[in-house]
């Protein structure tokens, strides 16, 4: 007679098959746009509902019409990146102004609402872990008001620093995000057939030459977090590679990449996955081997996100069983489309 232990023994093979069958990318033209009480126009990107095997995360893209606002609601942590437009958010009674390229963090349970104060539709990318919350009984989504046209923005205090009263960063503007160049190509590279390098803390902190440019938002492992105190989700920052270059070949736990600029493809566990602006690529983990190639004429900007359960939990406790691996570093050598 089969027991619970027999079922447990099959968990890994079940998960492996689920990952094999899941999607790896979704493109702008494949999105299903809907109206909800919160958003006038919103679509799911990488999420279980769209066929991805995530670690409880969901990413979305939404638009706020000119002269409009979102609903007001509260839920678990959320990371937001402003793809286009300008406006402000009211978070727990304080106003935070934002523009294209800004990154915002909604603390767990914070009441918040977003306002478009510019001449074009404001588009934002959202990253949450609501399915993880649901799995453990913490998914409480409360709606206080619905989206619609704005008469006037509520008169509440402005946070000029982008910090809340507890000293936590709520918004980081594009021009204030730290920039750093990747180290020289060739460092840590491995020949075909060689055992890949296990990443130590120093390699993870510097990115080990994976890309030519890093723009830090909520920060990479081992680096500053710009006063963000996120734990459940992480909009790490921008990964960038020059035209005709490719990033390093490596393997790690779950990450999501939303393409802001440029075009190219990724090799994900041996499969070629093309992308362009508006595409969203899913790196499933726990040791997905992948590499990104810029086949366009401008530097690529990939918005990189990862779940907090990876960054602050499993990446630390499971590093011997599922270590972060490097196979080769970035190169400026010409790549084919």
Protein architecture, described:
- Strand 21 and strand 22 form a beta hairpin.
- About 10% of the residues lie in helices and about 35% in strands.
- It starts with a helix and ends in a 9-residue tail after the last strand.
- With about 325 residues, it is mostly beta strands.
- The strands form 6 sheets. A 7-stranded antiparallel β-sheet has the order 1-23-20-25-18-17-15. It has a 6-stranded antiparallel β-sheet with strand order 2-3-11-6-9-14, with no helix packed on it.
- The chain has 2 domains: about 160 residues, Sandwich (Jelly Rolls); about 150 residues, Jelly Rolls, CATH 2.60.120.10.
Spans where pLDDT lies below 50 across 5 or more residues:
184-195, 199-208
Strand content: 35-45%
CATH superfamily of the largest domain: Jelly Rolls
Our count of helices gives: 5
> Structural class of the secondary structure composition?
mainly beta
Total domains: 2
User: What strand order characterises the main sheet?
Assistant: 1-23-20-25-18-17-15
> What CATH architecture label of the largest domain applies?
Sandwich
What is the total tally of β strands? 26
Q: Assign the CATH topology of the largest domain.
A: Jelly Rolls
Give me the Rg, rounded: 20 Å
Topology, pairings included?
Elements (H helix, E strand, L loop, with lengths): L3 H6 L1 H11 L3 E2 L14 E4 L13 E7 L3 E2 L2 E3 L3 E7 L1 E6 L2 E6 L3 E4 L5 E5 L5 E7 L1 H6 L6 E4 L2 E2 L21 E2 L6 E3 L15 E2 L2 H6 L6 E4 L16 E8 L8 E4 L2 E7 L2 E5 L2 E5 L4 E4 L4 E7 L6 E7 H10 L7 E4 L9
Antiparallel strand pairs: 1-23, 2-3, 3-11, 4-13, 5-12, 6-9, 6-11, 7-8, 7-10, 9-14, 15-17, 16-26, 17-18, 18-25, 19-24, 19-26, 20-23, 20-25, 21-22, 21-24
């Amino acid at each position: 007679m089969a027991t619970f232990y027999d079922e447990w023994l099959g968990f890994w093979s079940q998960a492996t098959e689920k990952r094999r069958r899941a999607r790896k990318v979704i493109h702008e033209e494949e999105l299903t746009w809907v109206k909800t009480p919160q958003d006038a126009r919103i679509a799911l990107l990488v999420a279980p509902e769209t066929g991805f095997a995530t670690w409880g995360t969901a990413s979305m893209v939404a638009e706020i019409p000119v002269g409009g606002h979102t609903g007001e609601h509260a839920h678990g942590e959320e990371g937001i990146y402003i793809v286009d437009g300008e406006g402000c958010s009211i978070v727990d009674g304080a106003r935070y102004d934002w523009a294209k390229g800004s990154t915002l963090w909604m603390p767990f349970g914070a009441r918040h609402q977003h306002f478009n104060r510019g001449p074009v539709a404001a588009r934002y990318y959202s990253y949450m872990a609501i399915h993880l919350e649901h799995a453990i009984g913490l998914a409480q989504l409360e709606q206080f008001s619905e989206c619609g046209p704005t008469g006037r923005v509520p008169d509440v205090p402005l946070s000029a620093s982008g910090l809340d009263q507890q000293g936590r960063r709520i918004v980081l503007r594009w021009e204030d995000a730290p920039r750093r160049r990747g180290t020289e190509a060739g460092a840590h590279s491995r020949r075909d057939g060689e055992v890949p390098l296990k990443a130590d803390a120093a390699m993870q902190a510097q990115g080990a030459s994976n890309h030519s440019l890093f723009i830090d938002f909520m920060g990479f492992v081992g680096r500053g977090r710009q006063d963000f105190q996120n734990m459940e989700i992480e909009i790490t920052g921008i990964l960038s590679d020059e035209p005709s270059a490719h990033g390093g070949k490596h393997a790690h736990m779950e990450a999501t990449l939303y393409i802001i600029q440029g075009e190219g493809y990724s090799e994900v566990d041996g499969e070629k996955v093309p992308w362009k602006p508006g595409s969203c690529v899913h790196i499933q983990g726990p040791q997905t081997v992948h590499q990104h190639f810029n086949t366009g004429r401008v530097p690529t900007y990939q918005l990189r996100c990862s779940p907090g359960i990876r960054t602050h939990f499993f990446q630390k406790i499971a590093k011997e069983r599922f270590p972060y691996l490097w196979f080769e570093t970035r190169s400026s050598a010409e790549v084919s489309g």
